[in-house]
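Our consortium's second objective concerns turning raw sequence data into structural hypotheses that experimental partners can test. To show how far this objective has progressed, the report includes one record in full. It was chosen at random from the queue rather than selected for favorable results. The single chain below, 382 residues long, was entered without modification.
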Amino acid sequence: MKLKFNPNYPSIDDLREKAKRKIPKFAFEYLDGGCNEDVNLHRNTEEIREVELLPHYLSVHKGSDMRTELFGHTYDAPFGIAPVGLQGLMWPKAPEILAKAAFEHNIPFVLSTVSTSSIEKIGEITNGQAWFQLYHPAENSLRDKIIERVAAAQYPVLVILSDVPTFGYRPRDIRNGLAMPPKMSLTNMLQIMGKPEWAIKTLINGQPSFEILEPYMPKGLNLRKLGEFMDQTFSGRLNEEKIKPIRDMWKGKLVIKGIASEADTERAIGLGVDGIIVSNHGGRQLDAGQSTIKPLTSIAAKYGDKIKVMMDSGLRSGPDIARALASGAQFTFLGRSFMYGVSALGKEGGNHTISILKVQLQQVMEQICCKKVSDFPNHLVK
């Protein structure tokens, strides 16, 4: 895939600022915010950036290759697009835009249960190469129906979410009365009027909805009722007894996302899970927890040869990806960064954001004389 790079927005921070100017405040704050006081949201990136890399300047270096084998597929880069809820709220057709870009660049796109495009549509766009993240339903019958749809669409990887046992306390969303479709308060209407391109494109494409869940949920839920529905229908408190039948049912690769301790990693290995994503949900669930880079380092060192150890939360650049890989991650995922890109640049946002990250990561690899992704730990300053 030829890299498509807009020189006016050479960083994720540039895309974030453009997105903030382009979409309504309630949509941007949903995307950009964490929970409570945003402590862990900021700690994630800050502590990733404390990691330092060691260059080997005088070594023989004939070039760097960022291609990465994962679960039997060789991806063109060691990063993918993380699952994000309510994507169509930020920009119309956002999941379709990002899934198409991911497929063209040969990186994984992970569809969330609470995204705004259907399992079947994303499966078609990615030729059956997307991953799916499951919020665990309270009812086994609903769990089975969703997993059957994922299997029928030929997704190779199922990700089950472990870090949303309760609905996160997010002050911005509460103030904004966030709902799907957006609540038409006077404040929100004024915000929409101030973003005419977003408003026109949303009008043309239709109001976003939970396409995956529509067959199973009541219509027109406000924030309170949406929270009640999510708590009642998707009680995400995952445990071994809930994972076992999924492992038996799912014939593809199975990943648990939200792991943050060595003890839970051991449990995942014992259950026959193929991989874990060390994550704190982008700082959106537990403000008093660790950043992702801290448990990643110890988990990867102890269990990296027993299970695929991946990471998300807090990554905002190619150097950030490099830092995570040097700390032991075998693959990484970014969520907000891609949503900033598509919110800022629309249908070009996916290709542009992937291109930024590929160029940045390639530059780091060449600079430190890192031949392949698996060599990154050799460049970690202890």
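The partners drew two points from this record. Residues 349-368 form the longest helix (20 residues). Residues 148 and 250 are 9 Å apart (CA to CA). Both points have been shared with the crystallography group to help prioritize constructs.
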